[in-house]
Amino acid sequence: LGAQLAAAFDAAVAADERVEPRDWMPDEYRASLVRQMAQHAHSEIIGMQPEANWITRAPSLRRKAILMAKVQDEAGHGLYLYSAAETLGTSRDELLDKLHSGKQKYSSIFNYPTLTWADVGAIGWLVDGAAITNQVPICRCSYGPYARAMVRICKEESFHQRQGYELLLALSRGTEAQHAMAQDAVDRWWWPSLMMFGPPDDESAHSAQSMAWRIKRHSNDELRQRFVDIAVPQAESLGLTLPDPDLKWNEERGHHDFGAIDWAEFWDVLKGNGPCNEQRIGQRRKAHEDGAWVRDAAAAYARKQTAQQVA
Ligand code: ACO
What we know:
Elements: H1 2-14, H2 27-46, H3 48-52, H4 61-86, H5 92-100, H6 118-135, H7 144-172, H8 176-195, H9 207-212, H10 220-238, E1 248-250, E2 255-257, H11 263-273, H12 277-290, H13 292-310
Antiparallel strand pairs: 1-2
Helix pairs in contact: 2-4, 4-7, 6-7, 6-8, 6-10
The structure holds acetyl coenzyme *A.
């Protein structure tokens, strides 16, 4: 029976059918999905911090309203993804415990500081731009709940990317000091954004298996290249430069060549040594502890409702 189930699973994946929560699936497939979806969900909620840092200092009411909506969207993305992960038989509490104890990762990008207002624009343009490039193919992921969650997330991320672009454009066309601030933000966020796609293909532990299972549709390097090709003309229309002297169009490849990424920095950030790792996880733990009374109150309310229904 085991072999029959495995054959049916392989055939469904090969035929591009969706795997649903009640379907049989290999334990390793389930574990790898929980790993990736949890990391993804954690990134969404940790990612609220660097931008929330600027809500109180947004330069106008309009910018403040946009930024608040965007940060709330990120919380929503986290919730869709935790719910999707729960369909694999794990609980949100368990996932949050693993985040808080450092057993599960979140994206390297959120361990960098937001030093100026222009960083809000650079995050929208580059970080959310990289996220969309990575996430659009996940809308076709073999696991149904993850694929469906991704559709709405990508629509919202597109709005985030455009607001970042528009913010940077306003700064770039502003005073000399505003232009310089926009350029400085792009200089600092460019390389970490390229690292978001994960290690190079020959060092990516999970890519081959995840692509065979159609969780991932493209390799880390393929998506990174796609992002560079999209970003270059956008930087030109923004009137900003990208901090890479080796960046140039390669006619033969039909892609842009780009300089070497500092992978030592990437692995170091993953180990917990980035500029803000401690602050991010410390703030997350504190928010969780401070929110205990809300969870207790919601649970007490739910118990009361159930008791009333029974009575
Ligand atoms: N930040 C932190 N950890 C990373 C990153 C990164 N940018 N890239 C790779 N890693 C980790 C992997 O999780 C893996 O660690 P693990 O074995 O402990 O899980 C290890 O480095 C090796 O990497 P890969 O084998 O290449 O891992 P994988 O095949 O899962 O690919 C990727 C990594 C591309 C990030 C994939 O998991 C993915 O597409 N995830 C969904 C998107 C996502 O998580 N986005 C979050 C940021 S975007 C946002 O929130 C706005």
